[in-house]
Amino acid sequence: MKNIFKPIGLGRASALVAFTSFLSYAVGLVRDRTIAVHFGTTTATDTYNASFLIPDILFNLFIAGALTAAFMPMFSDYLHKDKKEAESLANTMLSGASLLIIVLSTVAFIFMDSIIPFVFPSVAVDGQQSIIFMTKLMLPSAFIFAISNTLGNILMTYRRFFSFAISPVLYNLGIILGIVLLNDTLGIHSAAVGVLIGATLHLIIRLIDVFMTDYRYKPELNVSHPGFKKIIRLMIPKSLSLIAWQVNLYIFAVVGMRMMEGGLAAFNFARNIQSFAVSLFGIAFATAVFPSLNSAASKNDKKEFTRNFQNTLHRILFFTIPATIGVMILAKPITDLILGGGEFGSNSLDMTSIILLFFAISIPFESLTHLFARSFYAMKNTMTPMIINIFSLTIVALITIFIAPVYGIEWFSIGFAIGFGIYNILFVIIIRKHLKGFNFKKFTGSLSKIIFSALLMGVILYMTVDLYELIDLNEKIVHCLRIAIGGATYLLSAYFLKSPELESVNYILQRLFKKTNV
To answer: How confident is the model at residue 69 (pLDDT cuts 50, 70, 90)?
Structure first.
């Protein structure tokens, strides 16, 4: 047990988070396939997706901002200076988060019958009732995630990544379990029960890991703690950013359900496929490097900060640029491979794949935002990411409201890509002054090799479009062959061009299987 739950270094952390992110999103796609095959892109699936709105708002608005932007850097600072004060801060955060979510969830539960008709006035009465029922079922998940994610930040500070990394896998397995076991009796509501099962598993694995540390929770609500006060100040900008994102999700839900049956479901299916690469490389690498960015920023070591930033930047681009080209070319085969079958027929396939095609453009842009934002969080600057985020998401919202209903639902993802592209441009302009020793020659050389290899991969993928007629195999097997050919082409090209990021791939694999800590 202790060999599993133990501190690890940055190299192995990057590999572990990347591997478990891959596993989590692989299981997440199995979850989506389970939903797609059983329910397709229908009103039932739309109501399920809409039911996440209020629980997510409660968690993201009041808790996630503090955890993402403020708690971990503050806890890390106190842990190095005064362990007792660090534990007091963690106790206060856990107690405060739990009490706040309990109160808000109770109020939401009481008034739910009035909230949903107001929030979704265009949805039919039976659809509103389904959203009410599933939202009430999911409300406890906000409380569970408040505790679990606070523990996750504590564990990352101790460089204990295993439970942090594996818990999303358990969450997705819980949803699958709920659908498989309860679908015959509960229908789409079985997925909502699965959310509760998954959230509970998400928390349990982190509780086990916390018990392996020397931290022990004690009920405490020291709101006068200077660290807690600073967390509140720092979380406000991040919470405002999360409000902007939740507003966009609400707009996607309302406009999508109004435009066509299954529009919201198709958007979410495409979004989850696009998020595979974002999570696997963008979030994973940014999460793994965050403690090192925190440490360098705390020491005011700009060279070390820049070195970690640039290495992670190169790794993200090395994987996400080819992912963009590959997903754009193979949008329909990928959608069919992952979701096709059962209730997910040709109409569902066409609608989801066209959204995914344009979603692919945003893969590198969204992936880099996680690195950029965490870089500013490490410097205890939450205001800059907030301003840029709100500005960019406002553009996304305007495109969704005014352009998508006129020109088609694919403008959901086109607007998303435009918004995150602007986000990246603004961040690059601002973050330059915080970097010292950034090697532009190395960056441009690496980027040119990545782009060349990715374009070559794209050409090969286009040339294999007739492979379905040449090989007498199941269509989905041919989909897999084309994906494998594309990936092999990219890696071989990068190898012959001596792309330096191939060394980082070897490094990550070595760290993943190396027994000693660094």
So the answer is: low
